[in-house]
Amino acid sequence: MPVYTNTIVCVVKRLLIYLFLGFTTAMQAGGVKIGDLYYNLDIQTATAEVTYQGTGLLNYSELPNSTLTIPATVTYQYRTYSVTAIGYRAFNYCDVIRAVTIPGSVKRIDANAFFNCINLRQITLSSHLTDIGPMAFYRCLNLSSIDIPDSVRVLRGSTFEQCTALKHVTLPDSLNAILDGTFNGCTALSFIRIPDGVRSIGKKAFASCTALSAVSFGDSLRSIGSDAFLSCTALQSAILPDSLNSISAQAFKDCSSLKKIVLPSGLTSLSSNTFVGNKALAEIYCYADTPAVMNSNFTDVDTMTCILYVPENSIALYKDANGWRRFQDIRPLPADKPEQPADAVYTHSDALIAPAKRFVNGCLTIILPDGSHYAIDGCRLR
Fold first, then answer.
1. CA distance 276 to 255
2. Are the CB atoms for 180 and 156 separated by under 8 Å?
3. Residue 261 and residue 214: Cα distance in Å, rounded?
4. pLDDT for 201-248, tens place per residue?
5. Is residue 373 very low, low, confident or very high in pLDDT (cuts 50, 70, 90)?
6. At residue 359, does pLDDT exceed 50?
7. Domain spans of the chain, in order of start
8. Which option is the CATH number for 31-141: 3.40.50.720, 3.30.70.2740, 3.20.20.190, 3.80.10.10?
9. 138, 117 in Cβ contact below 8 A?
10. Residues 114 and 140: beta-carbon distance below 8 Å
């Protein structure tokens, strides 16, 4: 009996080891279905990552509901796991979902997580989210608004690129960088406030945002990448902050409605073609005592009528400087510096409320995109 008993014990032990190793491998490889979704499970940390069901157009094509709520925890084989991430390509090409709620347990959304979810209209992000990967929401054609939580520090490359219905974006004060192509091609976006913490705006970050008429720049911004606002044809002004010391090539090229530019004192040079194609430009405010080095930056600008404002003691320097001497009307800077556009708040009807003009004759005023003013009761003011 002892021999048989020992043999049975050894067999059972081996089976348990094989089962455990197989379970561990399965958890690391992913593909465990719990409820309607698939997860990668990590036994050691007791955490779960939402992963994809299939590839291409078959990914989650049979979800039972277009409104998806990611659970904060999942249970598998009597063990509970905290859902902490939406994994790489988790929902890419999923055209079923229209609304997603991500719980506070999720700290990370990986690259391409919602890539080409063309019917996604609404998403509620985790309040503890710290990282949004590149192209996470690329080409979500019906996504209309996004509120980035205060826990996010960086928006990575092309996060919301080609989200052509995106109108309302709230960026948190915690943000310190907007990387390449983040909002490239968001053709419905009309206003953006760059928080004070943002130090850099990457290449093509807002390129071809053709409805973008106003940008409020934060006071810590140091660099603007090449083509950052390329072909923002509705942009009215660029009031660049004192902290800025670098503008890369073609940053504001072909902004055909741009009328006013403020260049800070710390800007010592302008890269090539920074403001080329800005035919409507009427006012330039330069705060540097020494003219910034530039070449071919204001091609297409009517230098006969565009007014160049410079420090009074530097007028002679600007009249003699390469590129700047083309301007025929050079005047001393006015006492009051142009201000950043007022922050915007959007109502459900997409009207724009400007806090600086919140009350007119004691009435809350709504400014519509066409410039008309209405009292809150609907009476047109002008």
1. 8
2. no
3. 12
4. 999 999 999 999 999 999 999 999 999 999 999 999 999 999 999 999
5. very low
6. no
7. 31-141, 345-375
8. 3.80.10.10
9. no
10. yes
Q: Pairing state of beta strands 32-34 and 345-346?
A: unpaired
d(Cα 101, Cα 68) in Å, to the nearest integer?
6
User: How far apart, in whole angstroms, are the C-alpha atoms of residue 263 and residue 266?
Assistant: 8
The residue count for the chain: 382
Residues 6+ apart with CB under 8 A from 11: none
Q: So what's the pLDDT on residue 54?
A: 75
Both structure tokens of 327: 């301007």
Instruction: Report the Cα–Cα distance between both ends of the chain, in Å, rounded.
Output: 100
Contacts of 64 (CB under 8 A, 6+ apart): 36
**What number is the average pLDDT over the span 190-197?**
97
Please, which residues have CB within 8 angstroms of residue 72's CB and are 6 or more apart in sequence?
A: 82, 83, 103, 104, 105
Pairing of strands 177-178, 154-155: parallel
Q: What is the pLDDT of residues 287-342, one digit of tens each?
A: 999 999 987 789 899 999 999 999 999 999 999 999 999 999 999 999 999 999 87
Q: Are 91 and 70 in contact (CB under 8 A)?
A: no
18-30 residue pLDDT tens:
344 344 433 343 4
Cα(215)–Cα(200) distance, rounded to whole angstroms?
A: 15
CA distance linking residue 293 with residue 197, whole number of Å: 28
Q: With helix as H, strand as E and coil as C, how does the chain read?
A: CHHHHHHHHHHHHHHHHHHHHHHHHHHHHCCEEECCEEEEEECCCCEEEEECCCCHHHCCCCCCCCEEECCCEEEECCEEEEEEEECCCCCCCCCCCCEEECCCCCCEECCCCCCCCCCCCEEECCCCCCEECCCCCCCCCCCCEEECCCCCCEECCCCCCCCCCCCEEECCCCCCEECCCCCCCCCCCCEEECCCCCCEECCCCCCCCCCCCEEECCCCCCEECCCCCCCCCCCCEEECCCCCCEECCCCCCCCCCCCEEEECCCCCECCCCCCCCCCCCCEEEECCCCCCECCCCCCCCCCCCCEEEECHHHHHHHHHCCCHHHCCEEEECCCCCCCCCCCCEECCCCCEECHHHCEECCEEEEECCCCCEEECCCCECC
